[in-house]
Structures are given as C-alpha cells and as structure tokens.
Design goal:
Length: 220
C-alpha cells in the first residue's frame, strides 16, 4: 500500500525551463561566454545546479573549479530575479495534487534544484500545506543518490517500499531504484519516454490523471 508520493519538481510538477534558461544566459553573458539554446539547457539539467552550470560553460573551462564556483554564484543571483516569471504548474497537476491529498496520501517534493528556490517556488505555485515536505539541494547528496528520498520517507514515518517517486528523468528512476521505492515516469517532462523505460521505469503516465490509475494498480 502506497502511503507517500515524492514528486520531482522541474519537468514533473512545473515547466521551469524558460526561467532557468534566462538565468543561465544572463550568467554566461556577464562572464563573457556564448549563450545557450533551449535544447542545450535541457540537456544540461537534472543533476543539480553545479552540474547545470558546469555543462553550460564552454568545454575548456568546465573542469576549472573556481570558474564553476564563480559562475554558480552569478547564476544563483540571476535565477533569484526570474525563477517564477514564466514557471508554472503543468496542466492538470494542481487538480491531481488536491485529489491525492484528499485520498490521504502524504506528498513531498524532492529536487536537485537549490533548496531555497524549491521551498519558495512550491509555496508560491501550490500554496502552503499541500506538501508535507519540500526538499532541494543543500547538505545531502543529489539524486540519484537515495539519501534524500530515504530521509523524506523517514521524516513522514513511511517505509521506502510504501513510497513512490514520480519524475520525468532517468535520474528520478535511478533514485527510486536506489531507494527501493516504486517509480512512475511521466512523459510530459524534459526527457523522452524511451529513456525512462531504458532506466527501468515500468509505469509511464501520459497525463496527470493517469497517475491515479497507476497508483490504484500499486494498491490493488
């Protein structure tokens, strides 16, 4: 019986890519580098802010850590200016969350985005009280390391095998496998369905409503 549902944020609950791209390109411009296309930014995401910045920098400086440090600081300042300008929940997500809450599930968000942005974004877009936990990148390792997912389960008094992770990327699938949790991949995010299946996702939702059907199957 599933008790807790842990959602990824970017590409799963919310379409965030344009605000991320705005901040990335503002950072690159300030540092004198070439800006990145939407496709390039999409390719760079999912492994945390530091890796996003590293992959967005020119190849010849990606391993120069003090440059990555400096660029990450500039990016964080730029993202703070725009992170909720174009970001919005995907269609049908708010209704799904309300239904899940009404059914008694404990809801959480786990993202590789910086923790302060995760908490503020979740509050602004979904309001207070809908999620029991919203956790981003801070002191614990990033996904697919299972530490944060297991910490969320423990904080909510739920065994890992009674949790499901819902996400749009192979990173989310690997996190669920590493944490010994169930996984539901979603097809509307930033990675294609084939990648999710190759990573080990046996259940793919093509709409928020389909998540309810898959959960019913887990609980049958």
């Amino acid at each position: 019986m599933i008790k807790t549902i842990i959602f990824d944020l970017d590409g799963t609950l919310c379409d965030t890519i344009e605000d991320i791209r705005t901040a990335i390109n503002a950072m690159l411009t300030k540092l004198g580098y070439k800006t990145r296309s939407r496709a390039e930014v999409l390719k760079a995401i999912n492994n945390g802010a530091r890796e996003l910045i590293r992959r967005s920098l020119p190849r010849d400086v990606q391993k120069v850590e003090f440059i990555v440090d400096s660029a990450l600081e500039v990016y964080a300042n730029e993202y703070a200016k725009c992170y909720c300008q174009k970001t919005k929940a995907f269609e049908g997500i708010k209704a799904l969350l309300m239904e899940l809450k009404g059914q008694g599930y404990k809801l959480a968000v786990l993202s590789n985005k910086q923790d302060e942005f995760v908490k503020d974004m979740v509050g602004k877009i979904f309001g207070k009280g809908l999620f029991n936990v919203a956790m981003g990148q801070k002191d614990l390792p990033t996904k697919p390391n299972p530490t944060s997912a297991i910490a969320i389960a423990r904080s909510l008094g739920t065994r890992p095998d009674r949790c499901v992770i819902i996400g749009d990327s192979d990173v989310d699938v690997m996190t669920a496998i590493n944490a010994q949790m169930h996984i539901i991949g979603v097809s509307w995010g930033y990675r294609d369905e084939a990648l999710l299946k190759d990573a080990g996702a046996l259940n793919i939702a093509h709409s928020p409503e389909e998540i309810l059907t898959i959960l019913d199957g887990f609980n049958a």
